[in-house]
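Sanity check

After download, print the first record. It should look like this:
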Amino acid sequence: MTQPQPGQPIPPIPQGPLNAPVHGPRLPGPPGPQPPFGAPHRLFRPTLPVTHTDYVMFWRTPAWRWWRPVVALVLTLVLGLLVATVLYAISVGIDAAAGRIDPLSPDYDPFDITALGFLANNLGLASLIVIAALVSSALFSQRAGFLASVVGRMRWGWLGRCVLIILPIWLVFFALDTWLSLRAGVDFDLAVNPDTGLLIIGILLTTPLQAAGEEFGFRGVFNRAVASFFRNGRAGLVAGAVVSSLLFAAAHGAGDVWLNVFYLWFGFATCYVTWRTGGLEAAIAMHVVNNMLAEVVVPFSDIGDMFNRQAGTAGPEILIMMVAVGLASALIGWQAGRRGIQVTSAPGESMALAQAAPPTGMPSPYPDQQAPHPIRQTTGTAQPVPATGQLPTGALPMPPQPPMFPKPQPPQPGPRPQPQPGPETPPGPPRTASLDGLAPLFNPRPWESP
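Expected structure tokens:
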């Protein structure tokens, strides 16, 4: 660029566009129209609770939709019945081939169960563990560990402690029940039979899985699916306990009033300890101990009438076991509080807070709030996060947008740059010059000399 000569007018400085950025060039954005800040967005809804939630309401997340629990209930029922029917049909075929039963005989009773039929029934109920895990991961995008407890895994130490709490109570009450039965003249008629060895091994291997499968199905899937329809946690807890306990009693197919009362009481008790402890461990322990002690005499008796639950099968003596169930539930709740067992968790909270946090250097649009990040709800309205830092149910944080015009960086500390020599800033004399090279005193501006 040429320098203007003395006396020549200075040309005007060319002006840029009127909409030029103030602090710097415009940052390139993604192609296409972008939603405004705070607009509702249907992507990246957390599938895990973003606030501390108990076990029963764990499926009520920002990604919840009404059809998910409906499909979960239908799939669990259909797949459970299908697997149980196939396994029982296989056992009937094996028994028929061995000549133990004749399914084509007119006097054949399908409820006259055999040893293989009993084990097939146990395996069919145990399959609910796998079915429940598949339903939880496929429909709610939660891994199977969160179906066991709110911490995302089975707490085996707590499960063992629950067994130690329950077992002494059950032993005392079972001994009392047996003594009362003997006083009433009941003949157990115990003896070793050809199926004794098979039943002993089968009960030890399959009965714990059968009890756990019922808990995963009824206290896990059914309880959570029904409770998720309610925004209020207390209402969901009550509704889930009532419906799952009714289904649990109906699944046993009992025609006796006392048995149905016991099944309902047992269902409510296991729902309570599940909510009180934040997982299925206590309910599984109670179910396993009850079934294992009830089947102690099964290998040494005729099990043909084992599933006979018609009217008159039980009586008021069932109240003894109901007292045992209530006492065990109270002790488990007390131990859970004393040992500080975790009953709620918010595994999606970190994801929600990360999405709500503004980028580095961006001022918050809500400076008057302690948690100054807007959120998006499923209804499309934006609300601020409360001061407690918890997100409302069904809400998803809005990821902040980058600044339109970035501010210039402030000057960094350090040595300031020196001006470069030019027509208006002539160079000074060198700092290390000899006496012969110095300019005379009467000529202070040597660069103007001819």
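If your output differs, re-run the checksum step. Summary of this record's structure: The longest strand covers residues 374-377.
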